[in-house]
Amino acid sequence: MTIEVRVPTLGESVTEATVATWFKKPGDAVAVDEMLCELETDKVTVEVPSPSAGVMGEIVAAEGETVGVDALLATILAGEGAAPAPAPAAAPSEAPAAAGGSTDVMVPTLGESVTEATVSTWFKAVGDTVAQDEMLCELETDKVSVEVPAPVAGVLAEITAAEGATVDATAKLGVISGSGAAAAPAVAAPTAAAAASGKDVANAPSAEKAMAEAGISAANVTGTGRDGRIMKDDVARAVAAGSAAAVAVAPAAPVAQAPRGPVSADDAAREERVKMTRLRQTIAKRLKDSQNTAAMLTTYNEVDMTEVMALRNQYKDQFEKKHGVRLGFMSFFTKACCHALKEVPEVNAEIDGTDVVYKNFVHMGVAAGTPSGLVVPVIRDADAMSFAGIEKAISEKGKRARDGKLSMAEMQGGTFTISNGGVYGSLMSSPILNPPQSGILGMHKIQDRPMAINGQVVIRPMMYLALSYDHRIVDGKGAVTFLVRVKEALEDPRRLLMDL
């Protein structure tokens, strides 16, 4: 008998995936629930288990192909030289049936290296009728949020993992009973927020949650889903457009290691306690680990932005017309840093035990504030890119960061980081290293200041620069030299063309 292997449910608003890797080839014996292939979406990685024991037949969708939900991936010849089947495990797209016509709701595949998640929100209560693929709950990991769809239509009979509970990758979340349950409609009734905004379609549950957390109404969000339905990404875009700056400069939640001081009953009644998200916990831990591990020191300088601003104003219209992207300051700073890193390679290196690993390339991290926290997408091989290539990469990575669509691969492997606090009005700061990197450059606000030039006091657009570095590997001379080379390149951009 031939069994079809199809694309499982990928999650709300995800309609297609790319076949990343096949773990089996035609003719291989497979066991039930053994991993056949891995799919990549713009949000998570999904592993596809074998629905039956048997022999791998035809592979219909090869590696690199883009496939839609329920598309045919391959076939399995059931029973022909079947591998011994292990005890059945819950697959993300095909939950095991429980006694009495019930179906267990299991934790879906969380992605490589992610072993646990926190139950963030239940969108359904016990006794609610659910449709197949309707969102039941949302899980939060330290990397991404994962929405859990209903594997079958029925009634939510039991919730075994309450909100706030931490579950592992094989845990059961709840039970759906199929006995006597009327199939729920494919689209739920309009929510109160949708009704208030005049919509006659239901918004995504995760979008409702995100709007409530951000304190914005559905009327202020443009829906891109079917029939104008508001999706989670739409809320992220609306928040980023209206208040990303305020969110990004908000002080990071401290990691409380000492007991709190005494709080009066009156003050306690007016406090609000909110659990840190896993992403914020990860950010806090990494930043604190950086301070505890590296011998971090910061050196400062200032740069006259007159020449860069003049060059940008002269060519920005032609640049945008030819390359389809605006000419900003980040490409100048990226080029200047790449130039300086060649002269001071220890700033582009890292410590591995008792070894120093020098990088003969520059993977530039560009810190970006988003509604959910600070992320650092990486521009790979920035030293080999043109101004236009750098601007396009920064624009695309920034948009994906604000939309919450960055993959882990896009945030790993950086060798040096630039953080631009100036977009939020910061005049001076000491950036924290992004481990295991040994250097990070802090950009700041451009401000007109009186400067003494050739014996005359003139007004110039000035910016303070800050280089935080790991003193275990970078000496003061190297750090100061690096910052001076960046300053020289920006004050006379022609030096970049002449490699001086």
TrEMBL record:
Q: Could you tell me the EC number(s) of this protein?
A: 2.3.1.61
Gene3D superfamilies attached here?
2.40.50.100, Chloramphenicol acetyltransferase-like domain (3.30.559.10), E3-binding domain (4.10.320.10)
Q: Which cofactor does it need?
A: (R)-lipoate
Q: In which pathway does it act?
A: Amino-acid degradation; L-lysine degradation via saccharopine pathway; glutaryl-CoA from L-lysine: step 6/6
Show the InterPro entries listed in the entry. 2-oxoacid_dehydrogenase, 2-oxoacid_DH_actylTfrase, Biotin_lipoyl, CAT-like_dom_sf, E3-bd_dom_sf, PSBD, Single_hybrid_motif, SucB
Query: Top-level EC class, please?
Result: transferase
Q: Which residues form the Lipoyl-binding domain?
A: 2-77, 102-177
Gene Ontology CC annotations of this record? cytosol; oxoglutarate dehydrogenase complex
List the GO molecular function terms.
dihydrolipoyllysine-residue succinyltransferase activity
Keyword Secreted tagged: no
Q: What does this protein do?
A: E2 component of the 2-oxoglutarate dehydrogenase (OGDH) complex which catalyzes the second step in the conversion of 2-oxoglutarate to succinyl-CoA and CO(2).
Quaternary form? Forms a 24-polypeptide structural core with octahedral symmetry. Part of the 2-oxoglutarate dehydrogenase (OGDH) complex composed of E1 (2-oxoglutarate dehydrogenase), E2 (dihydrolipoamide succinyltransferase) and E3 (dihydrolipoamide dehydrogenase); the complex contains multiple copies of the three enzymatic components (E1, E2 and E3).
Family, per the entry? Belongs to the 2-oxoacid dehydrogenase family.
What is this protein called in UniProt?
Dihydrolipoyllysine-residue succinyltransferase component of 2-oxoglutarate dehydrogenase complex
User: What's the source species for this entry?
Assistant: Phaeobacter gallaeciensis
